[in-house]
Amino acid sequence: MDLEKEKKLTFAPRLQELRRSRGLTRAQLTNSIGEKQETISGWERGKEAPGVVTIVKLSGLQIPKLSG
Known about the structure:
single chain, 68 residues, mainly alpha, 434 Repressor (Amino-terminal Domain)
């Protein structure tokens, strides 16, 4: 399995678990980070992976906090 596919498959269940543990629907997550519901569904199924900026949004951190 290539590394990119492995990353997607590793990320998928973690995102779904995090979303559910916070009691969020995909629609609520969509509204909070500004992504399409279909995109989030793709992430949770391991079809796609978010970029770094989106991962930061998902983590609840802001860029200024990361850069100093």
